[in-house]
Amino acid sequence: MAQNCLKCLKYTMCVVNFVCFICGTAGFGFGVFMMMNSKVSSLIPSLSSLNIANMLFIIGIIMTCVSFLGFLGALKENRCLLVTFFILLFILILVELTAAFLLLLYESKIGSFLQRDLTDSLEKSRESAKGGNSTMSTGDWDIIQTTFQCCGVHNSSDWKDKMPASCCSKTQCDINQPGCYNKLKAWFEENFLATGVAVIVLCVIEVLGMCFSVTLFCHISQSGLSYK
């Protein structure tokens, strides 16, 4: 009975890690595709490297590597790989909890920072359009303004005389559109619960992965199997 339970645990861990590996590979590939084909710039100049493409690329690599270690360690019953998998999951949980704590602790400062950087990004886009570079007008600002039906950081006057087409409808430009900062802030507040639940579910999955790896490690040690 115990052997059957351990086999079930082993193959469950293999299946879950294989699914995570596929998801990580897809995220990695999509990130590379966006980096190769997307010409949009970052809305936050201070964190220009943390755009969507780079974040997908990094998250995909992490998921792929960690899940591969878990899959191979469970399949081959390799204690060294299982210990490495456990340590990496533990580090990821610490990083996630630390990031969540810092976001809650410095919420107001982060809001001021984002507001200042969004303003700098908009000014650079406006100056670029003024200099005859039209590519900036089809970047991240157009995507944000079209998606959230907003214009500028605080309102449409931020663009001055260089209001982009994304601030306008098919027939006219609405100068009374709300700013994107307040729209983005409201969107994050509305989805705060869903984000919190997603983080909790992710942490639970990681804790279960740690428990599975420890259980298999102890079983392998009691069986007298050496490092492969």
TrEMBL record:
One GO location term (cellular component): plasma membrane
Compartments, record wording: Membrane
Superkingdom of source: Eukaryota
Membrane topology: Multi-pass membrane protein
Keywords of this entry: Disulfide bond, Membrane, Transmembrane, Transmembrane helix
Disulfide partners: 150-180, 151-168
Membrane spanning residue stretches: 12-35, 55-75, 82-106, 192-218
Family (UniProt): Belongs to the tetraspanin (TM4SF) family.
Protein name: Tetraspanin
Source organism of this protein record: Salvelinus namaycush
